[in-house]
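Open question from group meeting: does this chain pack into something compact, or does most of it stay loose? Before anyone orders reagents, we agreed to write out a predicted structure and look at it together. Recording both the input and the output here so the notebook holds the full record.
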Amino acid sequence: MTGQEKMYNGDPDVSFAKARDFAFNNNRKQAQDTLLHILTKYPNYHDVREFLASTYAWDGDYKKARTEFQKILGKDQHRKTTWVAAIKNEIWGQFPFLALKLSKKALKKFPNDTEILELQKSAQESTMIPTATAGGVQTLSSDIPKDSISKESESELRKKYETIRLASLQK
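Structure tokens returned:
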């Protein structure tokens, strides 16, 4: 049985606690199935969905994690823990420009929050690519004409970033 085949009938808090135990004892698939099962009846149980997203991120499935974080933030933008986890997901997934975008949005809800500011700084540093010159740093934006940034999609920026990053790693 997978998590969404049958409607959930148990105590969601008890099942959530069990799912956390599964996840922290290297049984993440069982944890994810349990969390998905809870969400069949309680789709707005944001703590469950946030933990599910976190387990996806731990497994390196950043896209699935992003989807779950977006579902939460689409309904409740005042959950700092979700903003922080979503930003970390993008940093771990090597998407620093998405992390910067999320940081900017999060700081509108939580101005001057030190944790979010630190994550923003980390994401900004991830956009900086060492060049072959002594300690020089090149950012993706330095490779793109200023007037074209607003016209380019995020995916095009990510592709350029990856091309530059991979080229710098081969040097």
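Observations to bring back to the group:
The helical segments are 12-24, 28-41, 46-58, 62-75, 80-92, 96-109, 114-126, 154-170.
The chain is about 65% helix and 5% strand.
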